[in-house]
Amino acid sequence: MRPATARAAPPGCVRIIxxxxxxxxxxxxxxxxxxxxxxxxxxxxxxxxxxxLPGARCLDLYAGSGAxxxxxxxxxxxxxxxxxxxxxxxxALRANLDRLKQHAGTVVQAAALDYLARAPQxxxxxxxxxxxxxxxxxxxARALQPWLAPxxxxxxxxxxxxxxxxxxxxxxxxxxxxxxAVNYALYRVDRQG
Length: 193
Prior knowledge:
The structure is a single chain. Strands 5-4-3-6-7-9-8 form a 7-stranded mixed sheet, sandwiched between helices. The chain has a two-stranded antiparallel sheet with strand order 1-2. By secondary structure, it is α/β, with parallel strands linked by helices. Helix content is 23%, strand content 29%. Helix 5 links the parallel strand 6 and strand 7. The protein has 5 helices and 9 strands. The N terminus is likely disordered.
């Protein structure tokens, strides 16, 4: 049995790893299928993104716990739009943003593809981590195209036991890694592609 560490977040909580909110805990409802991105994966991802985050406009398309979007705010993102269709999760996201006084974060309660059917606005960084059962990677990637600023970065997370999702051919993989049952990658997207 592993001893508990002081840094581990209790069940129902996600810890912000670095930045102005370092150590802050996010309350997360216990819902089936919700799987916040693990600390180790977030740490690697945000090390990859750190040079790009200050002043970046970010979209957390399947926000869930909000760990990715709020971590981006903590590390200097100009703004983060978090899209979440589940009302309980959307309410928890708003409560966490209010408690942490993160006014540059907004929550849109909508299905991701419905949100992407609206008039687009450009985002520099997009987090694409849909529920695994939804198999929404390819459809979301296609719908994202008009929303991406030139040279945008898109983070994609998917189960390691499934093939890499079919993404547009002009998305260039910059970095990728595996952590346990999760594969994740960072892509650069030329909007003109």
